[in-house]
């Protein structure tokens, strides 16, 4: 019986060229690497907030050279103050839009919230802070109801919230009664959110204290993240980048503090709005709940298979939207010192949606940041204030705002197509 000796080829296989993570090149090449990464993202359609930042610079430049006093401290302070009401509505809408859904009821819910607060605190003498808490709970309950009908019964969110838009507006009119207006005293929560309330009473030190806190918080947060990622032996930002980011935050913060101090100081409602943005950004980017929201918005079926409760995410997102709608209603009521039929103005809904979309949140779901609400509403309020200063009719304002919204959606659509063609979507 013969046996054959088997031999194995000892020649090593040819080396396989491994793809290099572009982020590694960024870290190795320093600022040159960041520029290369920036160009790569542009070619791939990952525009981020770049279009809205460029648009905002152009808008401010146009109104600034028109000689309308647009860049004065008082005018900039007014822009930052009046953007907070619509901006708060937009924060809640960002959560909904991340699922690829819509909430058409936020305008009516905000008006209803103001009416409920006014009736409780003024007509029935309920403690003003208790009335505010009950109002916010009502907003959460209404949002949860919308989400439950959508997630459990299967009625499209568009239909559910459209019905809410009509129904809650009718309830608001019924609550306000024949007069249609309830004036609010400048006390308690209304004073806190109103135009006569400033951080540290408008003391010039207040704005600079906030700027210092913001700068230190950003630096410590990024250094802590660098430490954790270094310990885990994964990619981390170099100290030079952290220093640059911190410097940029410092410049913006101290410049804003200086400008606002030239007027009356930093409005309390602006501080609250920024705190809400920071908290919501942390929730979306740093918690498992936030990752689940992005997952459901990106791919529902994959989320189900991963064990995510899609109905609960949907219900919770609409509850969050209801909360911010109610809070936005209180802010708007504080700005006009009354709860009236204009509280559920459909334009508030349209402007809130426009703010979230213009700021960079995708209508197709799964992409966006809560800071979109800030950037978008800043664009919207800048356009409105600038056109008011020019004395243009309301019709012109609507047409220009609509054109800006359409441009934002077109950019978003083109960006998605570019990412698909480059294999990144």
TrEMBL record:
The keyword Ligase does not apply. Pfam families: BPD_transp_2. Keywords: Cell inner membrane, Cell membrane, Membrane, Sugar transport, Transmembrane, Transmembrane helix, Transport. The chain crosses the membrane at residues 47-67, 79-99, 104-122, 128-150, 157-177, 197-221, 242-260, 266-284, 315-336, 348-366, 396-414. It is a multi-pass membrane protein. The keyword Transmembrane applies. InterPro entries: ABC_transp_permease (IPR001851). It is found in: Cell membrane. Part of the binding-protein-dependent transport system for D-xylose. Probably responsible for the translocation of the substrate across the membrane. PANTHER family: ABC TRANSPORTER PERMEASE PROTEIN YPHD-RELATED-RELATED, XYLOSE TRANSPORT SYSTEM PERMEASE PROTEIN XYLH. This is Xylose transport system permease protein XylH.
């Amino acid at each position: 019986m013969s046996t054959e000796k088997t031999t194995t080829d000892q020649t090593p296989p040819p080396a396989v060229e491994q793809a290099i993570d572009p982020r590694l090149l960024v870290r190795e090449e320093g600022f040159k690497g960041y520029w290369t990464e920036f160009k790569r993202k542009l070619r791939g359609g990952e525009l981020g907030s770049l279009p809205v930042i460029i648009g905002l610079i152009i808008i401010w430049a146009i109104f600034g050279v028109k000689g309308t006093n647009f860049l004065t401290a008082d005018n900039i302070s007014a822009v930052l103050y009046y953007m907070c009401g619509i901006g708060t509505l937009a924060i809640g809408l960002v959560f909904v839009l991340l699922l690829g859904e819509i909430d058409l009821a936020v305008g009516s819910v905000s008006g209803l919230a103001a009416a409920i607060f006014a009736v409780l605190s003024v007509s029935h003498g309920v403690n003003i802070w208790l009335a505010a808490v009950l109002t916010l709970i009502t907003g959460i309950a209404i949002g949860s109801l919308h989400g439950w009908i959508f997630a459990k019964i299967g009625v499209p969110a568009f239909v559910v919230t459209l019905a809410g838009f009509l129904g809650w507006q009718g309830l608001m009119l019924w609550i306000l009664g024949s007069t249609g207006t309830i004036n609010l005293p400048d006390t308690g929560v209304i004073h806190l959110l109103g135009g006569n309330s400033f951080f540290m009473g408008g003391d010039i030190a207040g704005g600079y204290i906030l700027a210092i806190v913001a700068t230190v918080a950003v630096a410590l947060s990024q250094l802590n993240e660098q430490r954790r990622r270094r310990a885990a032996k994964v990619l981390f930002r170099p100290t030079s980048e952290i220093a640059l980011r911190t410097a940029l935050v410092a410049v913006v913060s101290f410049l804003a503090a200086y400008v606002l101090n030239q007027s009356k100081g930093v409005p309390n409602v602006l501080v609250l709005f920024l705190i809400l943005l920071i908290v919501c950004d942390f929730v979306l980017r740093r918690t498992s709940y936030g990752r689940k929201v992005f997952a459901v918005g990106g791919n529902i079926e994959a989320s189900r298979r991963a064990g995510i409760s899609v109905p609960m995410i949907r219900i919770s997102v609409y509850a969050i939207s209801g909360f911010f709608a109610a809070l936005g209603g209180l802010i708007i009521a504080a700005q006009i010192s009354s709860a009236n039929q204009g509280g559920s103005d459909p334009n508030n809904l349209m402007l809130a949606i426009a703010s979230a979309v213009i700021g960079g949140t995708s209508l197709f779901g799964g992409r966006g940041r809560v800071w979109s609400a800030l950037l978008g509403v800043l664009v919207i309020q800048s356009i409105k204030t600038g056109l008011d200063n020019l004395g243009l009719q309301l019709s012109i304002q609507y047409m220009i705002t609509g054109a800006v919204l359409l441009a934002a959606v077109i950019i978003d659509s083109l960006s998605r197509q570019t990412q698909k063609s480059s294999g990144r979507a």
